[in-house]
Write a structure and sequence with these properties.
With about 900 residues, the chain is an alpha+beta fold. It is globular and about 90 Å long. The protein binds tryptophan and zinc ion. The site of zinc ion has 4 residues, from α3.
Length: about 900
């Protein structure tokens, strides 16, 4: 029994955890002392837990229960007395000690195997370095522990390892002791004074090098900043470091939040399941979210690094100082922190463009999740595997909920609520209600109905109707709301939906809003609470044009019967930048849906002249805001077009968008060419926002120009590819060449690019993605070939995302091939990953669960593959997703 490795998880019968069953922990941990003897194949972890009974726990005789997975127990002692096998019981992943005193020290010694750990949870090796990932439940793969977020303790961590192989030894908090040992070994001891849950524990050991700096906090303390990377990446750290300092300053200025420890470290690792992790004082990052150099990374990558660095930093308060009571409350930290990082990015860049991009993701991917078998509320009420709930719903819709609160309260009150929250709950593990209660207290608003946003799944549909009464000079707006049923939630209640709006006059002027004798200025936020509600606006000389849901003030689908002329007008005139863009998207959608219908009814394809004319107008003269213009020149994605239908016609949508792009590019060719040349300044690269905006507009024009297949356009792309001094331009040009109909130039360019960048795994990720997103029928064969490429590995999540994720997510019509080969290929990979990395397998399977709106033929093909996966001995992760999908 002692020697057995406990619970290899794939065979455990999956158990459902319910929010309603929450009980506080029976024991608290007063402090933790950890000792690591690091060896790749047999690391020994000794843990001393200072335990005491939790006085609020209902049963004063309750046994102690600890969690553990894949641990080989070497010894266990209670108050330094070794326990025999009769002294404890291990069942599945639980270790039980009955009849223990109220206060005692439990010492366990276990052996683990980091080298074998391909799940990348717990302690594992990445490129020969030790690192950890403990959120959500990875700490139980390191040692026996009450591995739940409401058990907080100060940690002391001693790390011992071979000094040559692992010269750098890091953990949370401050280093307090270090020294050399016999046989070329050394040790470092770290102390983290802030009580924290085990999911925030981190350890790193390896041959790493640091870029160092300092930051002086608002109250005058000096903080050491360190970014640890492999030696060859030292030149890629400047941007992350600058972003970190900006984020620290911003959180002081905007939320009054200061950093608390003396040191803040970031470590870049190549094998990582997600983007990054906010471990206290020792963030661990996917190298793709920290490394950035203009030669090898795009402007988009620079933006991602800035926002992820900020996100993890902001967690120090929203997540670490105040944490979650249980994992159902995940959005308490993630929704709030995403909102904070979006505010930060909006302050660093263009607020309208940031909003457009965030909403773009929400409206395609999160809305699709809401309409799928895996739909769930922002606060789920049950789960089998918590890793399955790090979703767009919890993160992005969760952020929208916090944004709505900030709009309902106004910034000043919201900030007061935030201050109250951090002050009242500092050092505690709390709930969504605790957060919302602070917002209610400082504002006097009743937020009871608002709380439904956390518990009710699905995307509400708001239908708006306007009625102008010329005799009375009034305009009445009627809003109806309805949320469609989702799995397990048949009946929905009306939500409190903030609708920010204005009225636009015939000359484009904002009209004063007067309702019930109240003057509301030219913009207001309507509180839609009922299933149906009306507002009458007075003193309107002419029929107004409504601009509704400005800035996307709520995560809903809003329908209003706009004419094309209305939309073309709003596209040019709406004072709200987001709504200008949205008017353009609505106009384009009408045109695209018409092209879909034309194919289904066997008519000729004709693109709406109003759309062409509107784009023509956008291109006239000198652009005022090149970045915004680049956004306005994007047609809705195939995924977003699909969102508009109950029954999706994959091929018709692809053809419609393709045809629209070609037609627009042909009609606007001279203007696109003029703009391309104007913004293709032959200046050396600069990080400056204006320069980045110029690159974005120029490359948008180029990608449109090449769809016309003229030699001229292809030559421009070739020239840009050959002469680019930065990855933004090089990658954009390569994509144009590879995605062009005839791939001759593309093949040569790909080979050249691979020779140039073979040494850089992050750039090779791009090289993979560009090929698998090629919109031509050979895409699937390319994916198959690339899976055999020496630079590809099933053990590296970034590579899986670059090849399989990009193919299934961004090459819709090829993934959905009628012969089902796309589905089969994905299912093969999922089955392979089931045993290697369950967390990644469970994400990769998602496209196979999105069959609800497909034709019966494809639906059957998809379900066939799900059935095939279901027959395997599944990890709890995949089991939960696949059974949900098959029972929908
Ligand atoms: N908390 C991390 C974040 O800020 C998410 C995360 C990183 C994570 N790695 C993980 C979640 C592994 C689950 C498993 O977004
Ligand atoms: Zn986060």
């Amino acid at each position: 029994m002692n020697q057995a490795v406990s619970n290899t998880s794939p065979n455990a019968s999956p158990q459902t955890i319910y929010l309603k069953d929450y009980l506080p922990p029976a024991f608290l941990v007063k402090k933790v002392e950890l000792d690591f003897r690091l060896e790749p194949q047999n690391t020994v972890v000794t843990s001393r837990l200072y335990l005491s009974r939790n006085p609020v726990y209902p049963d004063p005789q309750a046994p102690l229960e600890l969690k553990g997975q894949e641990l080989k127990l070497l010894s266990i002692k209670l108050d330094d007395q070794p326990l025999g096998e009769e002294g404890y019981a291990i069942q599945a992943d639980t270790l039980k000690l009955a009849g223990v005193p109220d206060n005692f020290v439990l010492e366990t010694q276990v052996e683990i195997n980091p080298e074998n750990n391909t799940a990348l949870e717990g302690l594992y090796l990445s490129s020969g370095n030790f690192c950890t990932q403990c959120e959500a439940e990875g700490f139980r793969r390191i040692t026996w522990y009450p591995d739940r977020p409401d058990v907080l303790a100060p940690f002391t961590t001693r790390i011992e390892a071979d000094k040559t192989q692992f010269p750098v030894l890091l953990s949370n908090g401050n280093p307090t002791e270090k020294g050399d040992l016999d046989q070329g070994r050394h040790y470092v001891t770290w102390e983290d004074p802030f009580p924290k849950p085990s999911y925030l524990f981190a350890l790193v050991a390896g041959d790493l090098h640091a870029v160092k700096d300092t930051f002086n906090t608002a109250s005058g303390r000096q903080v050491a900043l360190e970014i640890w990377v492999e030696k060859e990446n030292l030149h890629k750290c400047d941007h992350a470091l600058a972003s970190l300092k900006n984020a620290m300053r911003w959180d002081e200025a905007t939320y009054g939040r200061e950093y608390d420890l003396d040191i803040y470290m970031i470590v870049a690792v190549n094998d990582f399941n997600m983007g990054a992790m906010e471990n206290k004082g020792l963030n661990i990052f996917n190298s793709a979210c920290v490394l950035a150099d203009p030669k090898s990374e795009t402007d988009a990558a620079f933006h991602r690094v800035e926002s992820v660095v900020a996100h993890e930093y902001f967690h120090n308060w929203s997540g670490n100082r105040v944490t979650c009571r249980d994992w159902f409350q995940l959005s308490l930290k993630e929704g709030f922190t995403v909102f904070r990082d979006q505010q930060f990015s909006a302050d660093q860049h263009s607020p309208a463009v940031e909003r457009i991009q965030n909403v773009g993701l929400l409206r395609t991917a999160q809305f699709a999740e809401d309409a799928s078998p895996t739909a769930h509320p922002v606060r789920p009420d049950s789960y089998i595997e918590i890793n399955n709930f790090y979703t767009l719903t919890v993160y992005e819709k969760g952020s929208e909920i916090v944004r709505m609160l900030s709009e309902l309260l106004g910034w000043d009150a919201f900030r007061k609520g935030s201050d109250l929250y951090f002050e009242r709950f500092d050092g505690q593990a709390v709930t969504v209600e605790d957060f919302v209660q602070c917002m209610a207290e400082v504002s006097g608003l009743n937020l009871d109905q608002f709380l439904l946003w956390y518990s009710q799944a699905g995307t509400p549909r708001v239908t708006a109707k306007g009625d102008y009464n010329a005799a009375e000079k009034t305009w009445t707006l009627t809003l109806k709301q309805e949320t469609p049923p989702t799995p397990g939630q048949a009946d929905k209640q009306p939500l409190l939906i903030p609708i920010k709006m204005g009225l636009v006059g015939p000359g484009g002027q904002p009209l004063p809003l007067e309702v019930d004798g109240q003057h509301l200025g030219v913009e207001t936020v309507l509180h839609l609470k009922e299933a149906e509600q009306s507002w009458t606006f007075h003193h309107l000389e002419d029929e107004p044009l409504p601009s509704l849901l400005r800035g996307f003030s709520a995560p809903v689908k809003l329908d209003y019967d706009y004419s094309r002329q209305d939309l073309a007008f709003l596209l040019q005139q709406d004072p709200d930048g987001f709504n200008r863009w949205d008017a353009g998207q609505r106009l384009a959608l009408q045109a695209l849906q018409e092209l879909v219908a034309a194919q289904q009814e066997g008519r000729d394809l004709v693109l709406d002249a109003e759309l062409i004319a509107s784009w023509q107008k956008l291109l006239e003269g000198e652009p005022e805001d090149p970045q915004m213009l680049a956004e306005l020149l994007q047609l809705p994605s195939e995924a977003y077009i699909a969102e508009q239908y109950d029954q999706v016609d994959i091929d018709a949508i692809h053809t419609a968008r393709d045809y629209a792009r070609k037609t627009l590019a042909t009609a606007l060719y001279p203007d696109l060419l003029r703009l391309y040349k104007a913004f293709n300044q032959q200046k050396p690269w600069s990080a400056d926002a204006k320069e980045a905006a110029a690159r974005r507009l120029k490359n948008t024009c180029l990608s449109l120009l090449v769809v016309t297949d003229t030699d001229e356009a292809l030559q421009l792309a070739e020239k840009q590819f050959q002469h680019a001094d930065n990855m933004t331009d090089q990658q954009a040009a390569l994509t144009c060449l590879v995605h062009a109909q005839e791939a001759n130039q593309g093949e040569a360019a790909l080979a050249q690019f691979a020779r140039q960048w073979a040494h850089d795994p992050l750039v090779m990720d791009t090289w993979f993605s560009i090929q698998v997103t090629r919109p031509h029928p050979d895409a699937l064969q390319r994916v198959q070939a690339l899976l055999e490429h020496p630079a590809f590995s099933m053990k590296n999540p970034n590579k899986i995302r670059a090849v399989l994720g990009a193919f299934a997510g961004q090459n819709r019509h090829n993934f959905h091939r009628r012969d089902g080969a796309g589905y089969q290929l994905l299912a093969d990979a999922v089955i392979q990953l089931n045993s290697l990395n369950p967390q990644i397998a469970s994400r990769l399977v998602l496209p196979l669960t999105r069959f609800q709106k497909l034709d019966d033929y494809r639906k059957d093909k998809m379900k066939e593959q799900l059935e095939r996966i279901h027959k395997q001995d599944l990890s709890p992760d995949l089991y939960e997703m696949v059974t949900k999908a098959l029972s929908a």
